[in-house]
Amino acid sequence: MPVLPASRPRLAPVAVAAVAAFPGVVLAAPRSLALAVFALLTACSLMACLLLLAAVETFPGAAEAPGASEELDIGWRSAGGILDTAAVLVAQLAAHASFEETASVDSADAEEDFQRGPMADTAAAFAVAAPISLAMASAGYLRFGRDVQGDVLQSWHGATGPGAVILQASRCAYAVVLVGGVALASKPCLATIQELLGTRRSAPGAAQRASQHRGAIVLSLCALLTWLQEDLGRQLRVLGALGASPLALLLPPLFHIEMARRQFGRDIFSLDNLGAMFIMALGVAITAGCLFDTIASSMSPPAGHRGERVVVSSLENITTHRWQR
């Protein structure tokens, strides 16, 4: 069993993040115009700060070691690397694009949303999220190249003077974007939990309290998982393959095709369902591919199991066992 002391370095940041995200999770109407405008302004300021950090070379900062996951194959050299990259990107983009997906949950004009199909909602959601991710990736790679750390903002750890101010502004803006994303993403999640549990609709006050309790439980479980998980890259891969991919790419087009068949008599293999099928096929490929890769890697013996040569980069925590007869 691993030792989990209360003084673990990530405990304080995780606790602060959970406390900061809790008010947004329990809000009754997170889709207010003020929140949307504030989120967009914050995202714009974040991208502006990142572009300043990338363009001005006088801002100090040197990546000591890439923050890469030891069990994650990110790259385009193999099929597994492509699947891992797709899973991580889906998890990241789905988190940033949560407010666009939430907008279709409470829409008054449900018939118009249905006629547009999941292709329009998914494309709009990722179009909103892509600039943030592209700005962070471009800022890191333009400034540090392959030595950029997994957390791009950690690459400017030595910034001083004006650079430190811009760096802190970037971190604050990104924190606000993530906290807002948690608040907006919680609504469809809580609505799904309510439907799965078969909770009856009661008085507004009681329903709001029940939603707050469920939100607190879900947020606590997420915080606990974040605290216990050492390899956040591996966690992102699992969440992207088994969570974000089915919820954002697989289930919405599947439900759309089935509802069109029942309500309008549309054939499953109709040309009108081509966009939905493309998104669904992408979700199936990411989820099934990552599952197959996980099963294959778990069944294959590690290096050195049958005498293969093993290259050890560190001798830390290696002990010598003495066998007694």
Automatic annotation (TrEMBL):
GO terms for molecular function: L-amino acid transmembrane transporter activity. Keywords: Amino-acid transport, Membrane, Transmembrane, Transmembrane helix, Transport. Residues 20-264 form the Amino acid transporter transmembrane domain. One of its GO terms (cellular component) is membrane. It is found in: Membrane. Its main location: membrane. It is a multi-pass membrane protein. Pfam families: Aa_trans. The chain crosses the membrane at residues 38-56, 123-144, 236-255, 275-296. Belongs to the amino acid/polyamine transporter 2 family. This is Amino acid transporter transmembrane domain-containing protein.
